[in-house]
Structures are given as structure tokens and as C-alpha cells.
Design brief:
heterodimer; A: 177 residues; alpha/beta; Maf protein; 6 helices; 45% helix; B: 164 residues; mainly alpha; globular; YutG/PgpA (chain B); PgpA-like_sf (chain B)
Chain lengths: 177, 164
């Protein structure tokens, strides 16, 4: 099972920063560019990349789509999906990743949407529920993958863990290519 | 008659409680597969089943006591089953959840801090067998929810949804 052991916020922060370094190297070696569509992390994922100097050759930009109107206008998430499945759903994450891929013109786009808490949870989607999607060209054609996560901890911890898992997921995607 | 023998089976959680050493702990361990299956159904069905297991457990424990003529026999473990399920309500499916939840519930059930001990000693019959473990379960659940929401000790549950 893929899990984080007991970690404090500063340890999570360190894990995040060290995992970004490796990912940037792999992206650069493969001549790939990446961009994000972030919701519940509000730019934290992008920020973890821009903390590194000279990252501009692999990271081009992100769309922080906190409100549904931005998800619709800039990421082409359909109104119907938002109405029927909700902003926090695998379908929305899927469309956000593909929308970001088109809008940002990157080789790989990662989207993140979830409930960081402390409120907003339901029985079906408790606090800590996060969907992460990755869109990009795979071995033969365009691929989009979605995973559902359930994180523990407070708002900041959920956001940090989301970024760590998004980068892990991104690494797996690149390595499979 | 058939119902009675089924209740007797339920009381020992299908003979798990007849294990010679630490039947309460073994009964709790035997509940882990049930927790795993119930967790897949979502929190509402999980809670409904757990809720319904309480009166069933009271009847089963009563039937077992009538059967052997002794109160709170060690062989009855349906109380541990229900108590542990209550402790484990609404937690992510990770190995950390089950390890920490198991320890929290066993410590509460063995140490019996108030009011668990008082309930254990004063309340008789099938209800008496069940109630102390149910209260231990509720206290355990509160502890687990505090751990779950205030720390990230329970790890990350990941499920792959779609790939194309």
C-alpha cells in the first residue's frame, strides 16, 4: 500500500520539495513540459515547482480554477458534469486535466480537485476526498488517468499530501511512457 | 430451534470465541475482514449494519447465556465484533486505520476506563454483555475521528478509477 507514515507539516513540506526535484529532472531529461489545473490546492502544486530556480523549461503554467465558472470557461469542464457529478468527481478531474492540456499546450497536464476541509464533506465524499487526473500522450495515444484519494489530517495537511501524491502519480505516468 | 442455534453461533462469531487464548482479541481480529467488506459499501450502509448488529448481538448473547447458564462468558465475542465496528466507523481503508483502531479498541476494552467498567459490572443479561463494548466502541470512535481529522497518521487511501 502506498502511504505516508506519520508526518508533520514541515516533514510533508520537505517530502514535497524533494520529490519535485526528482520529477523536474525526469521531465527535463525526457524533453517534457507540464502544467496543472488546481482547485483545492490553490496553486500549491505550481508553487512547489516554481520554488526551484530554472524550472521554466519544464513548467509552463497552471490554471487555478477554484470556482466552477473558471472550470467551465478556462478548462472546458461541462456544465452537465458539474451539475450531475459535482466539482469534486472523477469526471470533473478528467475534464480538468484534458482542458488544461489543451489550454496550456503542455505535454502532460495534472488536475487536482477535492475537499480539503474542515467543512464541505458528505457521506459519499468525506473531507480528504481528492481526485487527481493526468492527461498526456502515453505509449501510443492520448491517455487520461484518474485516481481517487482519501487523505487524513487538517486542511493544510490534505493540501500537502495531495501535492505529494500528484507528483508521485506524475512520476508513474512518465515512467510508463 | 434453528433460530436459537443460529443465535448461539452469532454469539461466538461462528466459534471464533472458543479460541483458547484471548478470545476477545481474537474476536476483534476476526472482525477485520468484515470491516473491510463493510467499508466498501460506504459509511451509511456500514453504520446501518452496525446499528442492526446491536439488537442481534443482545439476542445472541442472551441465547448463549441461557444455553450455558453463565453471564458474560469469554466465549461470547459478538460484543467485541460490534464494538470494533463502531470504533472503525467512517475511517479510510488503510493499514494504519486498522492497526491504530485495533489498539485503541483493545486498550479500552481491557483497561475499561469509566463508565465502561461500571456498565460491565452492573448491567446483566444479553444487554449487559453488549453495552460495555458498545460504549467502548463509541469512545474508540471519538478517539479515531480525532486522530483522523487532526493528524495524517491514518495514511492515504488510493483507488484507481479510470484509465484509458
Amino acid at each position: 500500500m502506498k502511504t505516508n507514515a506519520v508526518k508533520s507539516k514541515s516533514e510533508l513540506q520537505n517530502t514535497l520539495q524533494s520529490s519535485v526535484v526528482g520529477t523536474v529532472r525526469v521531465l527535463r531529461d525526457n524533453g517534457l513540459t507540464v502544467g496543472f489545473a488546481e482547485s483545492c490546492t490553490g496553486g500549491l502544486l505550481s508553487s512547489s515547482f516554481t520554488e526551484l530556480a530554472g524550472v521554466s523549461d519544464v513548467f509552463t503554467g497552471s490554471i487555478i480554477s477554484y470556482d466552477n465558472s473558471v472550470k467551465k470557461q478556462l478548462l472546458q469542464v461541462s456544465e452537465e458534469t458539474l451539475q450531475t457529478r459535482g466539482a469534486v468527481s472523477s469526471e470533473t478531474a478528467h475534464q480538468m486535466a484534458e482542458g488544461a492540456l489543451r489550454s496550456l499546450g503542455v505535454s502532460i497536464a495534472v488536475s487536482v480537485t477535492g475537499i480539503a476541509g474542515p467543512s464541505g464533506g458528505t457521506a459519499e465524499k468525506p473531507v480528504g476526498t481528492v481526485f487527481i487526473a493526468i492527461a498526456g500522450s502515453g505509449r501510443e495515444e492520448m491517455e487520461t488517468h484518474v485516481r481517487q484519494y482519501l487523505f487524513a489530517g487538517d486542511r493544510k495537511e490534505v493540501q500537502l499530501q495531495t501535492c505529494i501524491e500528484a507528483i508521485k502519480f506524475l512520476n508513474e505516468f512518465i515512467n510508463k511512457k | 430451534m434453528l433460530l436459537n442455534s443460529l443465535l448461539i453461533q452469532i454469539a461466538t462469531f461462528f466459534s471464533v470465541g472458543k479460541f483458547p487464548k484471548a478470545p476477545g482479541t481474537v474476536g476483534t481480529l476476526a472482525t477485520i475482514p468484515l470491516w473491510y467488506l463493510l467499508s466498501q459499501t460506504g459509511p451509511l450502509i456500514y453504520m446501518l449494519v452496525t446499528f442492526l448488529l446491536f439488537p442481534l448481538g443482545v439476542m445472541a448473547a442472551q441465547a448463549y447465556e441461557n444455553h450455558i447458564g453463565k453471564h458474560d462468558s469469554k466465549e461470547i465475542v459478538i460484543d467485541e465484533v460490534v464494538g470494533f465496528l463502531i470504533t472503525m466507523t467512517w475511517l479510510p481503508l488503510t493499514w494504519q486505520s486498522v492497526v491504530i483502531g485495533f489498539l485503541v479498541f483493545r486498550v479500552l476494552d481491557i483497561v475499561k476506563p469509566p463508565p465502561i467498567r461500571q456498565l460491565d459490572q452492573k448491567v446483566q443479561g444479553g444487554f449487559g454483555v453488549m453495552v460495555d463494548d458498545v460504549v467502548a466502541g463509541v469512545i474508540g470512535s471519538i478517539i479515531m475521528q480525532l486522530i483522523y481529522t487532526q493528524t495524517n497518521w491514518l495514511g492515504v487511501q488510493i483507488s484507481v478509477l479510470t484509465s484509458n
